[in-house]
Amino acid sequence: MKALIWKDLHKIELVEKPQPSIQHPHDAIVKVTLSSICTSDLHIINGAVPNAKIGTTLGHEFVGEIVELGESVKNLSLGDRVSANCETFCGECYFCKQGFINNCQNGGWQLGCSIDGCQAEYVRVPFADTGLTKIPDSLSYENALFVGDILSSGYFGAELCGVKQGDNVAVIGCGPVGICTMQCARAMGAGKIIGIDINAARLELVKTKGYADITINPKAQDVLLTLKEATDNKGVDCVVEAAGGKDTFQTAWQIARPNAVVAIVAMYEENQTLPLPQMYGKNLIFKTGGVDAVHCAKLLKMIEDKKLSTDVLISRCFDFQDIEKAYAYFADKNSNCLKIALKYD
């Protein structure tokens, strides 16, 4: 089969690999129908993910059809249409039982990082009962493509903040994760949502779609002053940092009101500074982490009930055989791309 591998630093290549087979009774083999490219794939290629292994098939965001099952898989059947979780987790270890599946002692972020991922015609999914979720008949593959990663990350950011009815929520970064965060925060009862980005097209999108009530471009506006005016001089109740820029972490804690929660769901390629003397007395709570994507079934139901939608995220579709062109398009900041959908024959 064809598979897209991380060949070396800054290099990818479409190669031939053997079709995966069952290695463990809890495995499933999925024929990929749609997959996507994630910013974290770019981080791997750039050498910013320590656990990533050269030669690994990239990708962790996909939907498809189950074609083979290990004998211990209980909740899935051959032919099921499934959405994949970006995290591999056993469901039985200490961290899984606490809901911290990103820290699973037997898994974590493996697909497309330390084991072969989904940017191939077939993929082996360990712990299939927890790593795959059946797609309701009423939803298309496109509807479900981003549930296990981008949408889960957005939900995670809002969940970390503990968004309550009427809370003012600022989301830094109006890309895919930011858009999903805004939708999830709204579903949780957020009052005023503020979108912050330096990309004018993305700001226009979140305002036009109603995801954000207020938008701020730091290149054209004073972020702190604008937010103070919008929040009766308090600052925001919740901040989700979904951008991962050079100065966005600093913006995140500065715009938070005293005793607020700052959730960091972005992945940085450089160390960030926690200036404790400057923030002393604000009594801020910082929450960080890779996504604990434990709500996939719930998120699919919310899509089915029209409470959430990720359809707007697909900027362009490519055939899988053109995946290297798709990577170039996705990485080009001038393309204004949100997400790519890769189609398989």
Overview of the molecule:
With 345 residues, the chain is an alpha/beta fold. It has two domains: 2-146 and 310-343, Quinone Oxidoreductase, Chain A, domain 1; 154-288, NAD(P)-binding Rossmann-like Domain (Rossmann fold, 3-Layer(aba) Sandwich), CATH 3.40.50.720. The chain is built from twelve helices and 15 strands. Helix 10 (276-279) links the parallel strand 12 (256-264) and strand 13. Helix 5 packs across helix 6 (176-187). The two termini are 12 Å apart. The mean pLDDT is 96.
Q: Would you spell out the secondary-structure blueprint of this structure?
A:
Blueprint: E1 2-8, E2 11-16, E3 28-35, H1 39-45, E4 62-69, E5 81-84, H2 94-97, E6 122-125, H3 128-131, E7 132-134, H4 141-144, H5 147-161, E8 169-172, H6 176-187, E9 193-196, H7 200-208, E10 214-216, H8 223-230, E11 236-241, H9 248-255, E12 256-264, H10 276-279, E13 285-288, H11 296-304, E14 314-319, H12 323-331, E15 339-343
Parallel strand pairs: 8-9, 8-11, 9-10, 11-12, 12-13, 14-15
Antiparallel strand pairs: 1-2, 3-4, 3-6, 3-15, 4-5, 5-7
Rounded mean pLDDT score: 96
- Count of DSSP H/I helices: 12
Number of domains: 2
What is the fourth-level CATH superfamily of the largest domain? Answer: Medium-chain alcohol dehydrogenases, catalytic domain
Count of DSSP strands:
15
The protein's oligomeric status is single chain
CATH class wording of the largest domain: Alpha Beta
Short description:
The chain has 12 helices and 15 strands.
What descriptors fit this protein?
345 residues, six-stranded parallel sheet, alpha/beta, Rossmann fold, 2 domains, Quinone Oxidoreductase, Chain A, domain 1
